[in-house]
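quick q for whoever's on today - can somebody do inverse folding on this one?? i tried earlier but teh output was garbage lol. tokens:
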């Protein structure tokens, strides 16, 4: 079901002596009305069902709430309006209806010129995000192509068995692309060899996916990785950016279902995210798998909030938002 924005989550420190330049997100954000001027629209996807079906550690349904609390105190550094578009909640294990509703809500946001920033929930969020983007492109950008860039330790190309989960979204998207005669353009950045079986790498190959492994991502090799990302971005018109927080090392991001033994550290991830966002082609970003039950004194929530800060700031500056 669709839940209205709970504006009580947006509270924090106020430095009124510093005027507008001292404001924070909780002072700027307002509940979204669709016909408001275009802005960044934060939308939650409260779902445990994908991770449950994928035999993981549940708790990501609380992600949207805790991430909002963590982002409330971020400095307001851009002028674009900031909105809370509420949550889509998955009820009674009916993930498919929840993903369809998420897609419909995202489609509305895109139609009205907003930049949706969607907070999971498990990575099953991606199949909902995609549905919203695909409908928007079908209706308004029929000739354009979409590229998906997924920062993730996992390929998430599992075959639904029998139903979709947090491990299947990009396979489900590939299936939809095939049904609709659209190209499947997918780049996974940060894949870990100890977290993906040969069957999954083979599927990535068969589907024409591009994969950059975590081991390739080092400070001395960053330019090469950035070039590969830019080359991928150059080939598409729009980019769907999705961040599975388990791409970070477990020490930086323990609050996920499947923490990473190696991961891509925050310092490098930030650089690569900027590379994607600087393309000015990102039409939606989401952040998946945050599970507050496994956080340690809110450290991971702060790390996720910092990523949210980066994504919102870059998106606000992009040409796409006029
Ligand atoms: N979203 C992805 N999840 C991983 C989970 C791995 C695990 O639980 O160990 C996957 O399916 O590969
Ligand atoms: Mn993952
Ligand atoms: Mn994932």
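ok took a stab at it. sequence:
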């Amino acid at each position: 079901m669709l839940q209205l924005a709970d504006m009580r989550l947006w509270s924090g420190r106020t430095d009124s002596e510093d005027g507008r330049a001292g404001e924070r997100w909780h002072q700027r954000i307002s509940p979204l009305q669709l016909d408001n001027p275009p802005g960044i629209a934060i939308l939650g996807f409260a779902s445990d069902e994908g991770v449950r079906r994928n035999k993981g550690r549940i708790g990501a349904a609380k992600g949207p709430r805790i991430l909002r609390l963590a982002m409330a105190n971020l400095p307001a550094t851009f002028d674009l309006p900031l909105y809370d578009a509420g949550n889509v909640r998955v009820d009674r294990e009916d993930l498919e209806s929840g993903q369809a509703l998420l897609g419909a809500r995202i489609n509305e946001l895109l139609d009205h010129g907003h930049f949706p920033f969607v907070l999971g929930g498990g990575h099953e969020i991606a199949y909902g995000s995609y549905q919203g983007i695909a409908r928007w492109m079908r209706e308004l950008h029929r000739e354009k192509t979409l590229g998906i860039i997924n920062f993730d330790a996992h390929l998430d190309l599992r075959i639904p068995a029998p139903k979709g989960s947090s491990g299947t979204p990009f396979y489900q998207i590939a299936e939809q692309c095939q049904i609709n005669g659209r190209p499947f353009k997918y780049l996974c950045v940060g894949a870990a060899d100890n977290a993906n079986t040969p069957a999954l790498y083979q599927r990535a190959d068969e589907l024409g996916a591009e994969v950059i492994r975590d081991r390739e991502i080092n400070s001395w090799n960053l330019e090469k990785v950035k070039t590969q990302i830019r080359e991928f971005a150059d080939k598409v018109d729009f980019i769907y950016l999705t961040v599975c927080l388990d791409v970070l090392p477990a020490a930086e991001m323990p609050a996920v279902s499947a923490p990473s033994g190696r991961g891509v550290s925050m310092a490098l991830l930030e650089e690569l995210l900027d590379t994607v966002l600087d393309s000015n082609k990102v039409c939606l970003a989401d952040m998946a798998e945050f599970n507050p039950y496994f956080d340690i004194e809110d450290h991971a929530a702060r790390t996720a909030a910092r990523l949210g800060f980066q994504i919102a700031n870059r998106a606000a500056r992009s040409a796409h938002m006029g």
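fwiw The mean pLDDT is 97. also Residues 34 and 108 are 8 Å apart (CA to CA). so keep that in mind when u check it
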